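hiii so um. not sure if this is the right channel but i have a protein structure encoded as tokens and i wanna go backwards to a sequence. like what aa goes where. can anyone help
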């Protein structure tokens, strides 16, 4: 249970770091709307590409929730005390490819990586590398924290 919790906390921290990359990409004009908002908009009832009430906060919550869940999965899959940052980077890229070449286009939110704007996908790939490296670093730090005796 402790490993799962550490993975979730690491996933939240990593999602924050990834979000900074995504916001920087938008600020540099490399992408317009944030993908989590497009995904939520597509999944909510109503016209697929029209703005919907509450989509922005729901996108933030869902993005961080997904990141926390993926962090817990990483913690379970590695079962290692100290997964290296390179393994985290690979995990992040695997998540990016599975999402943006797989289920995200399948729900109609964005085109697949192979047909999307290269600038957006470069930002998203980098963001996922940052996610994975931050996740592995955070998981290692959290795993190094001594447990408090509750007795």
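sure thing!! here u go:
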């Amino acid at each position: 249970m402790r490993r799962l919790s550490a993975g979730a906390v690491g996933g939240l921290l990593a999602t924050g770091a990834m979000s900074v990359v995504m916001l920087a990409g938008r600020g540099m004009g490399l992408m317009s709307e944030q993908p989590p908002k497009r995904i939520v908009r597509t999944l909510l009832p109503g016209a697929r590409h029209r703005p919907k009430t509450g989509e922005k906060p729901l996108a933030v919550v869902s993005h961080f929730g997904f990141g926390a869940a993926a962090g817990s999965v990483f913690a379970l899959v590695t079962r290692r005390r100290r997964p290296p940052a390179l393994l985290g980077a690979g995990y992040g890229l695997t998540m990016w490819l599975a999402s943006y070449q797989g289920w995200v286009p399948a729900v109609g939110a964005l085109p697949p990586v192979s047909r999307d704007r290269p600038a957006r996908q470069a930002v998203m790939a980098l963001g996922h590398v940052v996610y994975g490296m931050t996740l592995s670093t955070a998981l290692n730090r959290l795993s190094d924290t001594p447990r408090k005796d509750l007795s």
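oh and Helices lie at 2-27, 35-43, 55-78, 85-106, 118-144.
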